[in-house]
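Form 7-S
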Amino acid sequence: MDRRRYAKPFMWAIIICGAVVCAHSVYHLPFGQLDLLFLLLAVATIITSNIAVPMPGVNGRVNVTETFIFLSMLLYGGESAILLSMIDGFWSSRLISRKPITLAYNAAQLGISTFITFHALRLYFGDVINFAHGDFSVNFLIAVCIMGFVQHIVNSLLASAAQALKHEQSIWQVWSRDCLWPSITYFAGASMAVITAKLVGMIGPYAIIATTPIIGSIYLTYRTYLKNVEVSAASAKTEAEAAARAEAAKAQAEQAERHVEELSHYIAEQERIREQYSQIEKLSALGELASGVAHDFNNTLAGILGRAQLLLNTSDPAKVESGLQIIIKTAKDGAKTIKRIQDFARQRRDHAFSPVAVDQLLLDVSEITRPRWKDHAEAASVQINLELKISSKALVLGDESELREVLVNMVFNAVDAMPAGGTLTLATREAGGAVEISVTDTGTGMSDEVRSRIFDPFFTTKGKTGMGLGLAVSYGIIRRHEGTVEAESEPGRGTCFRITLPSAKNAAKPQANAGQPAPEKIAESFRTKFLVVDDEESVRELLRDILEAEGHEVVTAGSGREALELFAEAGFAAVLMDVGLPGMSGWELARAVRERDERLPLAIITGWGEAVGSNAQKAAGVDWVVAKPFTIEQITAIAREVSRRQQETGIGRDATTVAA
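Output:
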């Protein structure tokens, strides 16, 4: 229940009662008995009502006006005391609040309490004025107790009731907290009033002047006492706050200890999760690498397959020869893809660059990608036009296969960006000692956010159909060539990739078969017998066809044990073997052959390529290591060396490696 709504009605009831008491006192006031002494008491009451001491911890003040009120009651009767108490209540309340209802209430409660105190004295002693002129006796002590106790109890209860209703608290709680302190002033005031009244009866009005220092001393004593109480309360509060802070610090220390334990557990758990995540990342990276290799080989196989299908429908010898040359280049590019993976695994950075004709490079790229931008597109009713702007005749130093891979990847991306068709432009130009290659499409284009991330590994806009490795790998290739690559794009307007590479003006233009040894025909009267060992029938047949085309005799075997059985017949001038053979590896076969013949030339032909170490080659006594896919020139070079050794009648071993 909300008791605050009763606060104002209660205060108005007290104010009305106070007004009745005031009117009654004025009506019965003995004006004829009032003299200069009463006027002095009234002035003293008004002055001392403004001299108050704040009570510690509460919004209240106490003063010494009770002495003059009680003295007026003993000398002039209750009516004069009631009027002086109401003046004191009104005037002293101005120090706390200026609200009219508060001023009226405080005046009324003091008037009512004085009215009840006066009638309590009269009930016990009869005529209060005559009592003051009697002899000192125990009655004076009783009068002090009645005046101090009744005045304090009635006044404090009325004040506590109003505060309790305002703040919804119990009257006892408010009284014990706010009204216990000033009780001493009521008893001290009553004592001084009784003594002063007796002295006035004995020596006259001048007794009041004599008691003034005593009243002042009481006031100062009480003020000092309250200050000491306030200091003690502040000290107790400080100690309580210090104890609270110590308790809080202890609680924080305990909480910090728990947090340290939780953090240690969290760190251990994070370390375990990190190790698991590291394993997952390794597996994921392996999967991404496999996907990237598949992506590159799919591009290579697409070029070979598409070109081969075109050749099946072509009878023009010139076009057949041109198509076969493109297939050869594409197959070599696939072989170099494997080499780059092996280089990456060994962290090799030694790449031998040679002069590359940029115009020819773009011509090759246009032909390699023709099945994608023309045949496949037209099958899907999409028209893509290719424009070649090549007239720079510029040369750059680099790896032709790697540069071709970059451009093929960019062309495929451009085709994907033109699902409704458009124009694809390949262009070159020389500018400021550099060669600029551009791949431009009129496709969907890219936003600035996408364009800023296109060279990030595994970033793709193709969803599950893309791995996000093509442009990242291309960026690495261009950087290895000391070049730069930039992309300009606008949504709906297409994209242009610009590759800038250092020019190689002083380099000689590469020839068609540069870097490959020129085959030398072996005399028809001299035939050499070879043993070829490989578990892949297609590879065995290819090696036999190459050697037989050079006029040699070839015996083939599909496993190491079969090769040893054939080797027992003797008569072989050399053995060419794979590493991955069923039942017996190529290294084991080489050691077994070497035990039978220390001088017989041996060649390892393997898909592991240059990953084969020189120590393993030396330990097995192998003369040559050839990486798959191999060329005709590599095999014929080995055949010539074997024939030369036979002709010189002294077959030796030179531990020479022939690489792809």
